[in-house]
Write a structure and sequence with these properties.
4 domains, Beta-Lactamase, five-stranded parallel β-sheet, about 20% strand, Rossmann fold, alpha/beta, disordered C terminus, 17 helices, 18 strands, six-stranded mixed β-sheet, about 45% helix
């Protein structure tokens, strides 16, 4: 496979001289320019000096460990690809490496040729990604330069006279800023730009456009309600008989793009973690089988009341807990790989009720009795296109999660509301709540605050909602409860309305929300 450059640079940071030299020889045979480091400190210095395209970093190295070297590399040169290597046999090493930004993770021992193939693949993926970004920027620039020739566009379109006073706006501009045309007529165009943004950029849009012929770039704009939003602005001159008659300004809101990019990164992160999860489950399964078998034999050979009997009973209980955890992990991996979705028009209310009953069987009966459950729905909630089994699983995990957050009882209120182009289903509990710093991590595999379980439930929620083009918003306050609000579009492919816009109509009550 061809790489994105003729002789890509690779840094090998590995304290084993034998392995380091072996990797050097193989990569040099495949046309790489190789730099070697035998401890973390040397690796950091070479990284700054040589700026490699790709780095192989061992976790356990003298002076500076691999995790610190990984952080350093990603901070100094985010474009560089970093592959972390480890032979520790600890599954959390891979998980931590991916969370810190590693592009991939290798468990020793490995085949050197496979490492070269992986490096070439990652370099090729980077080339494709960067080429796509470049092409998108070129297309975006071209579209903006021709925007004044288009009479009906989705972007905000504003025209001014030659002094910068607003003469017309289209509906998209009115919706974006919240002003009517009458409110903006003859106002200076800078009225719509956030003051500090304009000061920092030192841009006078009118003078710069008249002098340079156009202005392009990202600005922050201020709406009528004083909130702000990022936008890509492009200006050009309107001429008639070679005389300047005014300026046309096109603004494309970037909030949607930023949200799409964030959600894409989250999905890629979960996919990478899923690969680690699969390997973890396989390795742990083998160890748990051996531990359980020998512990059971020792237990049967011991008196139940003896010290050995009590110790082996503790081991067997922990083995059973590990087996349940591995089973949860394997079910998650199998589901994410092989489940085939079947979308049909479905009434959501029976799904909530079935999920409630199923969750009630999965938690202690006395806890079910202590929790007051209520279901409130808007009138005429439409049937929507979903996979019933998958969405029932989403509701089941959210309800079970709410029960777990209320170990001493409380209230769980589920509300179903009609939105502009979809439905909101909110699960509001009076439980222990989630700390703000944990909200962005609760949908990751292995994240759990409980002593049992693998923490796969909410990760599965995220996976299923992504497939439905839906979203989930989390608001919480420690000690006062949480709200998990699910948005599902009426149709799986929705045009014109985005989940993070429609979700705001339901207005979760407390805390600062995060949309995953």
């Amino acid at each position: 496979m061809a790489s994105d450059i003729d002789n890509p640079k690779i840094l090998i940071a590995e304290d084993s001289q034998i392995l380091n030299n072996m990797l050097r020889d193989v990569f040099e045979e495949h046309g790489f320019e190789v730099f070697q480091a035998f401890d973390g400190s040397e690796g950091k210095n070479l990284f700054v000096k040589e700026k490699p395209d790709i780095a192989l970093i061992d976790v356990h190295m003298p002076k500076v460990d691999g995790f610190e070297a990984l952080r350093f590399a990603k901070e100094r040169l985010p474009r560089s690809i970093v592959i972390v290597m480890s032979g520790a046999g600890n599954p959390q090493v891979g998980v931590q490496a991916m969370k810190l930004g590693a592009d991939d993770f290798l468990s020793k021992p490995f085949v050197a040729e496979d490492v070269v193939a992986l490096a070439q693949k990652l370099l090729e993926n980077r080339r494709f990604a960067e080429e796509n970004v470049r092409l998108k920027k070129e297309i975006h620039r071209s579209e903006k330069n021709l925007a004044h020739l288009t009479t009906i566009i989705n972007e905000a379109l504003i025209t001014t006279d030659s002094s910068g006073k607003i003469q017309s706006i289209n509906r998209a501009a009115s919706n974006l800023w919240g002003y009517t045309f009458e409110e903006l007529k003859d106002k200076d165009i800078h009225f719509l730009v956030r003051g500090d943004a304009r000061t920092l950029l030192h841009r006078d849009l009118v003078k710069d456009t008249l002098r340079e012929g156009k202005v392009e770039g990202e600005f922050h704009f201020r709406k009528k309600d004083n909130s702000t939003f990022p936008g890509y602005l492009s200006t050009s001159i309107i001429k008639e008989n070679n005389r300047v008659r005014g300026i046309v300004i096109v603004v494309a809101e970037l909030a949607r793009l930023y949200e799409v990019e964030r959600r894409l990164k989250q999905s890629e992160k979960l996919a990478a973690l899923g690969t680690v999860v699969e390997g973890v489950a396989h390795e742990v399964r083998n160890c748990v089988t051996s531990l359980g078998g020998f512990a059971l034999r020792l237990h049967n050979m011991s008196d139940a009341d003896s010290t050995a009997g009590k110790y082996t009973e503790i081991i067997l209980n922990d083995v059973a807990r590990l087996e349940k955890m591995v089973k949860d992990i394997e079910e998650y991996v199998l589901f994410s790989k092989f489940y085939r979705f079947n979308f049909v028009k479905t009434d959501l209310i029976p799904l909530v009720e079935r999920a409630r009953d199923k969750a009630g069987q999965a938690v202690p009966p006395d806890l079910v009795r202590k929790v007051s459950f209520s279901l409130e729905t808007d009138k005429n909630v439409p049937k929507i296109s979903v996979d019933p089994t998958a969405i029932e699983e989403v509701f089941y995990n959210l309800i079970k999660n709410a029960y777990a957050a209320m170990p001493h009882g409380g209230r769980l209120r589920v509300t179903i509301k009609n939105l502009k182009s979809g439905v909101s289903i909110a699960f509001v509990d009076s439980g222990v709540g989630v700390h703000a710093e944990d909200i962005s991590a609760i949908f990751n595999p292995f994240f759990t605050s409980k002593t049992t379980g693998a923490g796969m439930g909410l990760s599965k929620v995220h996976l299923l909602l992504e497939e439905h083009r839906g979203a989930v918003s989390v608001t919480s306050e420690p000690g006062k409860g949480s709200t998990f609000e699910v948005f599902l579009p009426v149709e799986r492919i929705t045009t014109g309305v985005y989940p993070w816009e429609s979700m705001s109509l339901a207005r979760p009550a407390r805390g600062s929300g995060k949309i995953l």
